[in-house]
Amino acid sequence: VQLQASGGGLVQAGGSLRLSCVVSGLNFDDYAIGWFRQAPGKEREFVAHITWSGDTTVYADSVKGRFTISRDNAKNTVYLQMNSLKPEDTAVYYCAFKVSSGSYNSKTSYAYWGQGTLVTVSS
User: Fold this and answer.
1) Rg of the chain taking only CA atoms, in angstroms
2) What phi and psi values does residue 9 have, to the nearest 5 degrees?
3) Within its chain, how far is the Cα of 66 from the centroid?
4) CA nearest 97: which of 107, 82, 87, 86?
5) Phi, psi of 116 (to 5 degrees)
6) CB 101 within 8 A of CB 87
7) In the β-sheet with 2-6, what is the strand arrangement from edge to edge?
8) Closest of 29, 14, 5 to residue 123, by C-alpha
9) Residue 75 — very low, low, confident or very high, per pLDDT cuts 50/70/90?
């Protein structure tokens, strides 16, 4: 099982980035997917979640209205469109499969973490 996250980079505050997470090795459309992020010296935190069908999405309050999660099951890919970026969005962003019935915003509900992609937002 492999999750390959990409699309990170350096952007000025107010800018946009789109992250991608390409999945292989599992039946992609059987699983809900989550994006999490981890800033230096901080715990990994929930960002967004999308159900297997894509019909339900959930966001952390800190990104609601600025970030959009979506998925293309034909391409085994989940996306995170990030707009109006702020310096506090700086972190390594990870995607993962939700493999348990636990809470959507708990990292313990997820497995098969990708390697992460670094997003740096300058002020």
Assistant:
1) 13
2) 165, -170
3) 13
4) 107
5) 90, 155
6) no
7) 2-6, 17-24, 77-82, 67-72
8) 14
9) very high
Which structure tokens are listed for 100? 């348990």
Phi, psi of 107 (to 5 degrees): -65, -20
Q: What is the dihedral of CA 82, 20, 88, 62, to 10 degrees?
A: 60
Place of tokens 């039946």: 27
pLDDT in tens, 19-32: 999 998 878 778 89
Q: What is the pLDDT of residue 10?
A: 98
Q: How many CA atoms lie within 13 A of 30 on its CB side?
A: 6
CB 31 within 8 A of CB 99: yes
9-66 pLDDT tens trace: 999 999 999 999 999 887 877 889 999 999 999 999 999 999 988 899 999 999 999 9
